[in-house]
Amino acid sequence: MTTGCGRRCNFCLPDLNPQMSVPKDRIMKAVAGNVAAGNSQISLATEDMFIWGFNERQPFFFPNRNALLDLHRSIVEHAGVKWITLSHATIAPAVVDPKLIEELSSMLLDKSPIRMPNVSSHPEGRTLNPLIGLETGSIRMARKIMAGKSLPLKRSTGERGHQGLEVSIAITGFPS
Amino acid sequence: MTLIIGAPGETAEDVQETLDLIFEIERRGLHVILVPSVSHR
């Protein structure tokens, strides 16, 4: 789905790769190839699913809602795709565009093979579980090792709990 | 979610703030699977 990330966290090797979105037609060919070979579970490899297909008129860290919904809708509707699991994501885009999270959740939950009925409001207890690098609760360390990770959000100096707020918004929007 | 403990330059106060964040997640009843990773130098 993507290579690279562009947030330049100083502990992250994949971030050193050139930032690139794989075109939708190539992704769909890969989906078709997997299905034809007997794999009915699709997981799009990415360092951050929200930077795929970003709008070139905006910085990369603003998610392109229409493109993301279109891509995932095509996969959901592809004959033979039974399950979809998520790879990596960041929190900030979820805060920037909660409607994207809401619509993606609505679209993808029925295709998730993961069930956590104690935490999900889905009728079958399904959840979506993107892997998110939270890394630290220290604002000082966040600035030091991953200053670009919260873009386009800006942190207030010394505002403890800010990350917790970001988490709560993203998490209540995503898996339940 | 992944957490890094032991990043170069991390202080005891930084670690405490990460623990505070974990407690805050619990206090808010958020459903998160936390995956710790230890940084080696």
How would you describe what is shown here?
The complex is a heterodimer of chains A (176) and B (41). Chain A is α/β, with parallel strands linked by helices. In chain A, 34% of the residues lie in helices and 10% in strands. Chain A is globular. Mean pLDDT of chain A is 84; it is low at 156-176. Chain B is of the alpha+beta class. Helices cover 39% and strands 20% of the residues of chain B. Chain B starts with a strand and ends with a strand.
Quick summary:
Chain A is of the alpha/beta class. Chain A contains 6 helices and 6 strands, in the order E-E-H-E-H-E-E-H-H-E-H-H.
What is the helix fraction of residues of chain B, given as a range?
25-40%
Number of strands of chain A: 6
SS strand fraction of chain A: 5-15%
Structural class of chain B: alpha+beta
Unreliable stretches of chain A: 156-176
Largest interface: A-B, 28 and 26 residues
The largest β sheet of chain B comes out as:
2 strands, parallel
State the shape of chain A: globular
Which sequence of strands runs across the widest sheet of chain B? 1-2
Order of helices and strands of chain B: EHE
Q: For the CA atoms, what is the radius of gyration of chain A? A: 16 Å
Secondary structure: number of strands of chain B = 2
Uncertain stretches of chain B: none
Tell me the span between the first and last alpha carbons of chain A: 25 Å
Largest sheet composition of chain A: 2 strands, antiparallel
The number of helical elements of chain B comes to 1
Helix content of chain A: 25-40%
Mean pLDDT of chain B: 84
Structural class of chain A: alpha/beta
The overall average pLDDT of chain A, rounded, is 84
Q: If strands are numbered along the chain, what order do they take across the biggest sheet of chain A?
A: 1-2
